[in-house]
Structure formats: C-alpha cells, structure tokens
Design brief:
Largest sheet: 7 strands, mixed
Number of strands: 30
Bound molecules: 5'-O-[(S)-ethoxy(hydroxy)phosphoryl]adenosine
Helix content: 25-40%
C-alpha cells in the first residue's frame, strides 16, 4: 500500500460547503432533489435538460436508444451543431463583445478574443478547411501548442462536421504518425512551434518526420505561425494558416449534425496494445460539458473567469478549456507555457493579472508548487478565486490541505473531480456550494450518474471495502466506442461485468457516508503526473531498440508525479553506462518525453511464473524498494530478484 493511500484511509476531516445562495446547486437538498429526478425518470430528466440547455436544429423525440447496448445512442433523431451552440448562440443573444478566450503566451503576450471575433475566425477556418477538401465526416488531426488557434481549429471542424483528433504537442513524430494513420486523417493542423521553458519548442519538424513514411491519407498540412522558428514548407502540401484564412469569408453555415455524429477522437492508453481512439459524439458530450460547468464549477458566465490548466491534447483541455466554458457563453483562459516559467509564481501571477475566479489543475502541479514554497502564491493577490478544482489522479490529503489553505485561504471550496477520457466529463465530484468535502475523496456521483464499488463478480461491496469502480447506467457523454475497433470497446469496458456495468479500470472504496475514495488504476495503466500511459506501450518502445531482448515496466510511487516509471530490461548485449540514457532517449522518440523511464534496471531475466507470466506485483515491490510480500514459490529463477533489487 502506498503512503498516499494509507494517509487517505486515516483521513477523517470534513469541511462544510461554502454558503452561496446564488449557486446553481446551492444545497445538499438541491443535489438530492436533482438526483431523485433521475432516480424517478432517468430518460425524461436527460431529455428535459437536453432541451433546456442545447440549441437544436431538429428537436429529438427519442432520448436513449439502448437496443444495441453497449453501443448506446442519445437524442439520436435530433440534429444540432456544436460550434453554433458554443458561438452563434451567444452572439445572437447580444453577447458578441464578451470575452470568450483570454490567452497568455509564455513570453507574456496576451490576447483577448470576443465571441464575435472567435465566431468570425472559426468561420474563416471552416471555409479554409472546406476549400482544402475537408468534408463532413473527414478526420482532421490537430497538433498544436496551447494557442487560441487550437480552439479555433477544433470549433471549425465541428462547424463543418469534420471529426477532430487532437494529438498532444509533446508526443513524438512516431506517436503522431500512429494516430494519423489510425484515424485516417486528411489534414493536419499544426504550428511552427510554441514557447516552453523560455524557448521555442518546434512542432512542424515532427509533422514532417511523421509524414516521411505512411500517413498516405494526409493531403495538406496547415501551419500556424507562432514560434517564429524556421520551418520547411513543402510546396503543394503545406499551407500557411494565416494566409489560408485571410482570403476566406467570416461567415460559414454551421452544418446540421445528428446528435450521434462523431465530434472527436482522442487517443488514450490502455493496458494492452496501442493507444485507443476514444470516440465522443456531439449532443450528449456538449450537454454534459455545459451542465458540469454549472453544477461542478458553479460557472456564471457573466462574471466568472475560468481557467483549466490542462493542455488541449487531453480530454480535460477539450471539455473544460474549450467546449464547456464556451457552451456556457463564458470566459476561458488559456496559457501557453509551463507553470514554473520564469518562476514558480507564474500560475498565481496569471490568476491575479486576469482575476481568475475558478481554477482547475492537477494534483501533480499542486505538489510541485508546494515544494517551490509558499512565498510564491503569497506574493500574488488571489482574492478573485472562488472555486478550486483538481483532476487526473487521487489528491493526497496534504496537498488538498495546502490548496485549501494557501491558495483558497480556507474560503474556496475544492472540487476533486473523478472522471476519464472515456466519460467525457466529470462523474464523481463535490458540488462546491452543496457537498461537505473530505480531503482526498471525490465524494459523490453527480446527479444522473450511477456509480458503485463492486467485487470481481459485480456484487456491491460493503462500505469501506475496496473494490472496482463501475458506472451502472449509461450517460449522455459516455464514449461511443473505440475508433475502428468495436470488439475492443466491448472487451475493454463491458465484458468484465457481462455488459451490465461500465468498468472504469480504477479501484475505489465507498465509505459509510457514500463518499467515493479512488485508489488508482487496477490495470497496467500508469498515471504519471496526471498523464495516462500504458505499460505495454513503453515496453514495446523499449523492445524496439536493438539492444533490448525483453522489458517490463511498472509504476513506482513518486512524491510529486504520483507515479514514476521503472523499467526492468533484459539486454541482448553487455550493459554499458551510456545505454540507460540511450534507452530513455529512445522511448522519448518513440512516444514522447512524458513516457521516459525514470529508472532502468538491467537483469539476465525477468521474474516469471512457471506459466511464463511476468510477475508484475513483485516488480512493483522491487521498484518501490518494499519488502517482497508475494509468495515466490512459482518463481522460476530466484537469482533474478537479487539482480533487479540492486
Ligand atoms: C485517474 C482525466 C483519482 C483515474 C480526466 C482515471 C483520478 C484516470 C481522478 C483517467 C481523481 C482522474 N481522483 N483519480 N479526481 N481523476 N483520475 O483518461 O485513474 O487522462 O481512470 O482522464 O485518471 O485519466 P484520463
């Protein structure tokens, strides 16, 4: 058991919710009432919310179609357009001059983009995409830094019914190629580069490299100028974004998309094989993005400035930097660079400079900033903040308390939001002005979401007994599948409980108050600094190096990152001093720097059972330097343990 989980088991403090009569959900009673509506009439309640919260081009008649479960369909006979719901709707309501995006570049340059301007840019971009041959249903890969054009690109795709797949800018050329090929994308939208840690990090060269082999579906590459670094432009293929947009009209009709039209594909790691392309569709996804903004963040678009620090390469950036805030007609802040540049006060300075009211980040960032010292937040005026959020991994109670005291001044409620790429939006979270919080617990499922902790057979666990976290009823923002692989969708999420429950892959415990405590992944997925990485992916990257015969990767508890990566490697050749660095660089090239092992250990063999399975639990104990608790009688070769421990 890790120290973090141990400290959660000993955690008994409770903090009452802050008072706010003007909140969207102002009390526990209001939360219970809303839940009850779903208990009594789940479909009717979703239907009513979808009518109230979205603008429809064709109203739906049917709420849920479960005939082909687990391939659920929501509001399927309705039609709408995501970009119209995020832009035109607000401009039409007279809010065109309201700021949609406040953007700050790492060097300190600032842009404020109004709804009217954003709509015009999105229309120009949509027209430019059409001109380049992008049609309804085509896929567009977006490989960009955190700049407003990334949001414009996403919304432009949505406007014409193209499906976007954003690939995190720090992924390697190889990882980009795999995703482009799997999605069969027609266009890549990228930038010359973006600012990170005081330097321009080039992006376009990775696109060029990815396109050297394969990627035969790609017709064009659109290049936004941001970094100012020199890039090669291939005549006929590569096109300047600004030039392409400049000649386009600032109006473009938003196409009518059926509710189940795929809005996005986002690749995420699983326990086996290559990353899977999680598919989200239109109406259900946007409905939940908007509702959770209101319920979980208590977002009031007329007065709040909302800042989610996640990169748009992750689902958090999709739902809470772009679609959620814009669907509500509010102001979202985007920041290009790293949190510690030029100093560890940067995030707090941005909060102060732009009067951020709702701030949402990952526990790993909080832990890193704790280490940097309290003087940094203390040097900035954080009085505009009113709600704080966390996401991505369990937050240890110590980090929660620091966030509560030093950032929130014991005044701002903290929402610890549990969810996944697959869920589209928050599933378990406190409501800031309703739910009493316990540090380290994501508290209770949101209204409309039905979660349980069960044993391997699907039987509900007794309170305080650890088990597997499942979602027992479908919800509108659920993934609709894995791109191009229906069988894997069923196998990964539904087979374990015979199609009855969605299996999240997380362990959890529910206490006697009905509060959920997430214990981390139960599969071979690592959570490194809030990023999901499959052990298999890293192992395949290692094995693709000529010196490596076999590799096993496990997570090791890490004070800042939550988990760090430890790789056990069997070599085909003699070890030498440079090889560890070379293997780390190799993984960075194959996947990206976030997947680089922190620790590599060489051995003659890996510990295996007699049936040939790698004993991962044993490796986890070794990596963490813990006493080995496992029965090793099935282990083939005891000598390897000594080698790996050293
Ligand atoms: C973990 C990120 C504990 C969990 C939105 C989940 C969390 C995985 C929390 C999904 C939280 C996310 N408490 N664990 N509040 N939020 N997780 O797909 O293991 O990048 O399964 O989505 O992150 O990661 P993903």
């Amino acid at each position: 058991m890790t120290d973090a989980i141990q400290s959660m088991l000993n955690e008994h403090r409770t903090f009452p919710p802050a008072d706010n009569a003007a909140a969207h959900i102002p009390s526990m009673q209001a939360y219970r009432d809303l839940r009850q509506r779903f208990d009594e009439d789940m479909e009717g309640t979703w239907g009513q919310l979808a009518k109230e919260h979205l603008i429809w081009k064709t109203p739906f008649l049917r709420v849920l179609n479960a005939e082909k479960a687990p391939f659920f369909r929501w509001f399927e006979d309705g039609e709408m357009n995501i970009s119209e719901n995020c832009l035109d709707r607000h401009v039409d309501a007279g809010l065109g001059e309201r700021t949609a995006i406040i953007w700050e570049g790492e060097p300190g340059d600032v842009r404020r983009i109004s709804y009217r301007e954003l709509l015009a840019d999105v229309c120009r971009a949509a027209n430019a995409l059409k001109k380049l041959g992008v049609e309804y249903g085509d896929r567009v890969v977006i490989y960009m830094p955190m700049i407003p054009e990334a949001a414009v690109a996403m919304l432009a795709c949505a406007r014409i019914g193209a499906t976007h797949s954003v690939v995190f800018g720090a992924f390697s050329a190889q990882a980009l190629r795999e995703r482009v090929e799997d999605a069969g994308a027609k266009i890549i939208i990228t930038a010359d580069g973006g600012w990170r840690r005081g330097e321009v990090h080039a992006l376009k060269p990775s696109v060029d490299e990815a396109l050297l082999q394969g990627c035969s579906s790609i017709r064009h590459v659109l290049v936004v100028r941001r970094g100012g670094n020199d890039v090669e432009m291939q005549a006929g293929r590569d096109i300047e974004w600004h030039e392409a947009l400049a000649v386009q009209q600032d109006q473009c009709e938003a196409v009518s998309c059926p509710s189940e039209h795929p809005l996005l594909i986002l690749y995420t790691s699983g326990s086996t094989g290559k990353p899977k392309g999680i598919v989200h569709t239109s109406a259900g996804y946007l409905l939940w993005a908007r509702l959770t903004m209101q319920w979980v963040f208590d977002f009031h678009p007329e007065s709040d400035v909302f800042w989610c620090t996640a990169d748009i390469g992750w689902i958090t950036g999709h739902t809470y930097s772009v679609y959620g805030p814009l669907a509500c007609g509010g102001t979202t802040l985007m920041y290009e660079g790293v949190p510690t540049h030029p100093d560890p006060g940067r995030l707090w300075k941005i909060c102060s400079d732009h009067s951020v009211t709702i701030f949402y980040t990952a526990p790993t960032a909080i832990r890193a900033l704790i280490r940097a010292g309290d003087e940094w937040p203390k040097a900035h005026d954080l009085s505009s903040l009113r709600v704080l959020g966390t996401v991505g991994e369990p937050i240890n109670p110590e980090a929660w308390m620091w966030y509560h005291k030093v950032i929130g001044k014991e005044r701002c409620p903290i929402v610890d939001t549990w969810w996944q790429t697959e869920t589209g939006g928050h599933m378990i979270s406190p409501l800031p002005f309703a739910t009493p919080t316990k540090p380290g617990s994501a508290t209770k499922p949101l209204p409309g979401i039905f979660t349980e902790v069960v044993d391997g057979d699907g039987k509900t666990m007794m309170p305080d007994q650890g088990g597997l976290l499942v979602i027992t009823k479908p919800w509108p923002s659920m993934l609709r599948g894995i791109w191009g692989d229906d069988a894997r969708y069923v196998e990964t999420y539904w087979k374990k409980f015979d199609g009855r429950y969605y299996f999240a892959g997380d362990g959890a415990r529910c206490d006697t108050d009905g509060y959920f405590w997430i214990m981390g992944r139960v599969d071979d997925v690592l959570n490194v600094a809030g990023h999901r990485l499959g052990t298999m992916e890293i192992e395949s990257a290692l094995v693709s190096h000529k010196a490596v015969a076999e590799a096993a990767v496990v997570g090791r508890p890490d004070e800042i990152k939550g988990e760090s990566i430890c790789a056990f490697v069997v070599l085909k050749q003699e070890a030498n001093n440079d090889l560890k660095a070379e293997l780390k660089a190799h993984v960075a090239k194959e996947i990206g720097p976030i997947a680089k092992p922190d620790d590599i250990r060489f051995a003659d063999n890996l510990p295996k059972t007699r049936s040939g399975k790698i004993m991962r639990r044993l490796l986890r104990d070794i990596a963490a330097g813990r006493d080995i608790q496992q029965d090793m009688s099935t282990l083939e070769d005891h000598r390897v343990i000594e080698q790996l421990q050293s």
